[in-house]
Design brief:
This protein is an alpha+beta fold. Helix content is about 55%, strand content about 15%.
Amino acid sequence: MIRVITGNFNVGLLSNYARLIRASRGAFIASCDGDDMWIDPGKLQRQVDLLRHNADTGAVHTDFDHILWRRNRWHRLGSFHKQWYDKQPVPQGHVFSDLLRRNFIQISTVCFRGELVRASVDNGALQGSYSVNDWPLCLHVAALSRIEYLPESTTLYRKVSGSITNSGYAARVRMFEGQIRMIEDVCDHFAVSLAERTNALTQLYRPMWSAALFARDDVTFNRALNWLRNNDPSYANSWRARLLPWLAASPIARYALQKIQNLRVLCREAREYR
């Protein structure tokens, strides 16, 4: 029942995930990444039951608890979706357009229909140049089927130092660059309209611009600024956006802004996590 899929060298996150999916043989596929834990013994049964009774559904995901290590102990935010995403309902059904603008699916909560996710990998859902595996895979599945959501928290997601999303501003810039490549490829593959493509990319170029400022990556900072001026002029001409180039030119101002940003994150975490 248990097979170990391995190799003689590290093939990387995306290639490893793709080879595991290709090696799978079951009707359904669920993953639990090394940072995470399943905490609900009924998780898989409820998801499989839903998939078996809804042939047009390609995946089911759930809510999750989020923990992070601060001040020598773990702090927890229960029911992450319920508390974090502006208290808006999590999209269900045909969610491709919603998912294109923002990834709201945590991969360790998902149960996929096996044949659909294997076909998605064969169609190029996971490329080595991408920075994440969950978002492109879910987008391919969402383009071909419904994705449903269960509000129960079934998984514990840990935010740890050194992970893809928690490795400093330079790593965040690289992550955004990989996500931009992924969105471009997905939009090409599924013939997404120019308006939807631009809207989705805007949600990545804005934070990448700020991350590039703190990472002192002037090349990426100016490239993102030029893209925003051409595609999102209302944002690029806002007072906040006009202030960023001035801050980028002043090492003292950039340092102070980074300290303020870090303090804001710590205050938010102290308020939300217990």
